[in-house]
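# nightly structure sweep
# worker-07 picked up a monomer target from the shared queue
# config: single-sequence mode, recycle default, output format = C-alpha cells
# input follows
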Amino acid sequence: MTSLAEQTNILNDAGFSSKEIEDWKKDKIIKLNSAGFSNAEVAEEFGVVPANNNANKDYFNTVKAQLENEYYTQESISPDDELLYQSKIDQADAPSLKELVVGKEFDGDEILKRGWGKTLYDMTYRLATDEGLSEAFTQEEPEDYTWFEGLLERGLTLGAELPIYGGSFLAGTGATGNPIAGAFTAGAIPGAARATILKGLEQQSYGQPVEILKNFLQEGIVEGAKQGTIFATAAIAPQLKLPFVGKLADRYTTRVASQLTAFEGVGAILNGQLPTLKEFSYSAVMFGGLGLVQPKKTMETRTKTIFVDTGKKPNQVFKDSILDKTILEDVSSRTYVRSYNKLLDRKPKIKIVDKETIQQKIIELKNKNKEIYKTEREKNEKDGKTTSEFYVNLRKKLIKENPEISQLEIIETVKRELSNRTNKKLEENLLKIKKFEKQIDKSVVIFEDPLANQAAENIAFKPKVEIPTVERLKEMGSTVKRKSIIQGIDNKYPILEAMREAKINTKTGIEKLNLYEQARIMEGMPNRAAYFIEYNTLNGKTLADKGLGLKEITKDIVKEGKNQTQLFETYLSNRRAIELDARGIETGFNISTAKEFVNKYKFQFEQTAKKTDTYQRQLLEYARDGGFITAEAFTAMTEANKNYVTFARELLQDGKPVVAEGSVNPFKKIEGSKLRVYPPLEQMIKNTNTIVNAVERNQVKLNFIDMVAKSKAKDPNTFKFFKKENPKTTKVPKEELLTFRKDGKLETWKVGKDLVNSFKTLDQQGSNMLMNYLGAPARTLRAGAILIPDFAVPNFFRDTMQASFLNKVGFVPIQDSIIGAFNIITKGNNKKTMEMYKKYVKSGGMQSTLLAVDKPNIFDGKVYDILAKGPVRNADRGILAPFKALTRLSEEMTRFRIFEKTYKKAIEKGLTEKQALERGGFEARNLLDYAKRGSLGQNINRLVPFWNARVQGLTRLYEAFRDTPARTTAMVGAYVAVPTIGFYMLNYDDKDYKEEPDWIKQNYYYFKIADKAYRFPKPFEVGTLVSSVIEKTLDWVRTNEPQEFAKFAKDFFINNAKGFYPIPTVIRPLAENAMNYSFFRDAPVVPKSLDKNLPNKFYYTEYTSETFKLLSKTINGLVGDDSFFATNPIHAENVFRSWTGGIGRYVIDTLDYAIIKGKIIDDPIKPTDTLSKIPVVRAFDIRDVPGYSAQSIVKFFEEYEKVDKIVNGMDFAKKAGDFEEYKKLKETLNVDEVKLLEYRKQIKKLDKQIRTIYNLKEFPNGDIPTPDEKRELIDDYYKLMINFAQQALTYLELVRKK
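# output follows
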C-alpha cells in the first residue's frame, strides 16, 4: 500500500496543480484526525521526518551537570543568590557570608592593581616605557579571589575606560548620524587598540612604528571588527519585536536578556568558543545593572513628567514601586506608568494615550485601505484598457483640448486620472492614520517643561534615529546588496532591475539581445565606428556593408606620405570655405586664394573629395536610420552642405590655443568664425566615432523608455517615479535625467541617477588628474604583466578551458581556440574568414579584453597612422607592438571562435543578420567582459590593476552555476576536477612538490618530465577555487586530520580575500617593504635567514639584480646609510617589479647585461638560472630548488619567531631577576630552545656560505668558477638548508604531540 507521501508524488507526476494537491492533503488530514490519529502520525504518513531532540536534551543535560558542579564546588559566588548561600549554610562546613563574598581577606590593592593593569591607559604606558605586560595578563587570579572580587575588577576596568568607549561612540554617531554605527565604533576602536597594543607588548616591540602598523593590520583590524559587531548586535537586539512578546526593550527582563544573549552569542560565534559560566555571569550582572540604572538626566525628566501628569512626587513613586514592581520597570523604559492610568485625568491639557492601542487602530485602518486598494486596482485594470468607456471618453476630451497630443501622453494622463481616483478613496482613512500617528508623536516628551511640549505639538521635529526592526534590517540588507552590485560589480545592474519590474525574463538563449545585453555591447561600439573607417560604411537597420570606408577612399593619397595627405586636407577645407562663403558664413579663409587653390588641384583631388562627401552622407544616413535625426533634417543638412567637412576651431586664451585638439558637435548649426580650423580628416574620424556611438546609445535608451511605457500601460503601479520632464522648467537634478532622441526630437525623462549612469560607456567615464597620477603604476603593472609571452600562452589555456562552460554553444577546449587563432592569423589570405572577422568587428564583441581596459578610445592616435593601418591595427604601435599583437591574439582567439559558432547558430535559428551579429558579439565578450564594472569598482581598478578582473571572474563563475548548474558542474568536473585528481595522485607524496610555495600550488598544476619540474596554469577563478578545495579535501581524506582542512579553509579564505584588497599599486610595494611581507607570495620580502643588522647595500640574494645593487650602493653613498632616502637592493627591486610586472623583468635583465658588458661593474659570474630564458617556455618552468621560498624554510622561521618571542621574554625576566616569570615562560615554551637555536644557527651559516659562493671570483686553487659550478654548489647548500628546516619542524611537531 502506498503512503500518502508517495500518493502526493503520483498526483504531482499526473499533472495535478499545487492547489488541487493541497486541497486533497487538507481533506486527508481532517479525516485522519477525526479517526483518532495524532498530528505526529499524520505528519509521518506524509513523509515528514520527526525531529530528533536527543541532541538538544544531551546538550542541556550537560549544561545542567556543569551548573550543579559549579553550584556545589565553586567557592566564590554572587552575593545576590540567597538560595545558593542557604544551601552552603546547610552543609557541615558552612562558610560565612563575608567569606563567600570577599574571601577570608579582602585585598583591595590586588583588585585595583589587576583592574587598572587591564586598562588601555596602563597598556599604552607600558608599551611606551618598555615595561612589558602587566601581571594582570601574565598571572592567574589569586586562589582566594571570589566571584564578587572578579566583578569589582572588571567594573574598575570598565569604569576607567568609559570615556574611551563614550568618545568612540560619539565618533561613529557623529559621522553617520546612526547610533548603531556609534555602538559599532564604541566596540571597534577600543578593541582594535587593545589587540594592537597587546600584540606589541607580547613581542616587546616597544614603540616601533613598523611593528605597530603590522600588528594593527594583522590583529587590530580583525579584533576591532569582532568587537564592533558584538557591540552593535547588543545595541540592536532590544529593539526587535517578537510575536506575543512585543518590543524587547519595553520590559526590563526581556531587554537585559536580549542584550546578554546577543553580546555573548555573537561573541561565541566570532571567537569560535562558548563563554564560561563565570564570564556569562559577569556579563549578566553588567547588563542587568545597565538595564536598571538610568542616566540622572533621564530619570529627572521622567519623574518630573510623572509628577506633572499624576501629581506623584519622586519619593512617592519610590514607595509605590516597593509594592508594585511594574512601576520601576515603566519608569526606566516607558513614557508613562501603567499603574497611574486613573490619575492621568487630572491633567487634561497634555493627553497621554496608550501607544499600543493607537498602533492597533492604525493597523486596522491600513488593512481597510489594502482592501480598498485591491478593489480599486481591479477597476483601474478594466478602465485602463483602450476599449473601456472611461479610456475612450477621456481620450476624446484630451484630443479636443490638444489635437497634437501623443498616444504616450494620453496613456500617461489616463493612468494619472485612475491613480487620483484611487487616492480619493483612500484619503479618508489616510487622514485618520495621520491623526493617530500625530497622537503618538504628541505622547513623546521632548522637553522638560510640559508647557513647551504642548507648544511644540504642531512642529515636525526630526525624530530620533530608531534602532531598526527585523523587517528594517532585511530592507537595509537588500539595499546594501544592491549598492554593492552597482558600486562593485556592474553599473548596468539597474537596467536588469527595471526589466524584472516590467516582468521581462532576464535569462536568454540564442535569441535577440534583451535590453541589458544591448547596453553591455555598447562598450564595443568604438569598433563598429572603426569598421566605417577600416572597411565599409554600414546600413543602420541591417548592418550590411553600404559604401567604401575612409581608409579605402584615401589610401592612394596616404601612400604618398603625410605631406600629400595634408595637401588633400587643405583642398577639402578650402573647398568647404567656398561653399560656406556663398551662404554668407564667415570662414576665416581668403576666398580668392581658396578658389585659386581649388582650381589648381581640382583634377588631382576632386574625385577623392567626392568620395569623402559620399562617406559623410552615408554616416548621416546611419544617424537617420537609427532615429537620431529626422528625414527632413537629413535632407536639409545634405542639400545645404554638399562639400561638408567639420570646421572644428582652436580655442584661444591670451593668444594661445588652450586645447591641443579640436572637437565639435557634428549636428550643431555653423555660425562662422575667423579662428583657425583643425584638419578635416582628423574631424571625419572623430565624427565617425561620435555619430556611431551616439546612435547606438540613443537606440538603447529609446528601447528602455518603450519598455517602461508598455509596462506602465499594463500596470500603472510600475515605474511610479519615472516621468517625462521639460528640461527647461524641471527642478529634477541633471544627473537623474535621461535624454535621448525619438524620431529626431529630444526627450527628457526622470529615471534616477543609477539608471542614467548605467547607459554610460567606459570611454565616457572621466577621471581627474590626481587619479591619473596615482593610477600610473597600476597601468604600467597591468601592461607589464600582460604584454609578455609569459602571460599570452597561459592565458590561452585558461580562456579555452573556461569557454567550455561559459557560453551557450558547444565549445571544444584547445581545438576551438586554435581554430580561432588560425582564422585570425590567416584572415588576410582567406576571403570567407575575412568576412567572418569583419562581422566580429562590427558585432560589438570587441573591447572586452584586459588589453582594452586602459584604452577604451581607439581613435586617439595620429590621423595619418589611423588611415594607414586602420584604427584596430593602429593600436599595436610603438616598441611594444609585437607584444601587444601576441597578447591580443591570445585574448581574442577564443572569443572570435565563440562569436563564429554563436553567429552561425543564431542564423540557423532564424535571427536576422543584425540580431545574429549582436548575439554572437555579446556571447564573445561575455566569456569574461573586463569592460563590465561597478561605478566604484572602476576607480578601484585604476589604482589596483587586476581588481576588476578578479571580481568579474568570480561573478561570471557564479552566473554560470546559477543559470546552467548541470552543464557547468559537468564541464568543471571534466576539465578541472578530473585533471586536479590526476595531478594530485602524481604529487601528493612528492617531496619536491611539498617544498614549492603556496602561490605555485594554488595557481598551477605541478608535474615532472625526466625529473625536471614544470607547471601548467589552472583556469582563472574556477581553477584556483575548485582545484584547491579538491586537493585539500583529498589531503583530509588521506591523512584523516580534520584540523588541516580547517587550517586550509582559513588560509584559503584569507589568500583569496587578498586579491580584493583595495591597496593602490602606487603604495603597495612601499607597504610590503615596511612590513617585510609580500602580499602575493605570502612570504618575507627580505628573507629572514639574512641578519637584521647589515648595512643596506648587503641586503641581497642570488636573485637580486646587479642594477639595483649598484643603484643602492650609489644612493646610499650619496645620502648615507642611515638616511631616510637610503634603500637596500631588495626593496628597490621590489618597488620596480611591482610597478612594471613582467616587462620590468626583461628591462632588468637588459640593464644587468649592459652594466656587466660595459665594464661598469665586475662580472659577478652569476650562477646559472635554472629557469628557461625562452619566454614562452619560461611560463611553464620551475626552479630545480625553490631556495629561500621553500615551504620548510618559510615555516621554520614563522615557528621560530613564535619561540623567539618567548625566549626574549625569558632573557628579559632572567636579567630582571624575575625567576618566577622565567619559569612560567619556560613552561609555555615546551621545547628545547638551545636545540632550536642550533637549527637556526646552522641555517644562518649555510646562508652565509651561499652568499660567499655567489660572490666568489675564483677558487682557492686559482680556478675561475663557471656559472654551472656555482649553481650546483648553491643548490646543494639550499638542499641542506631545507633539510635542517624539515628536521626542526619535525622536532616541533613531536614536542607538540607529546
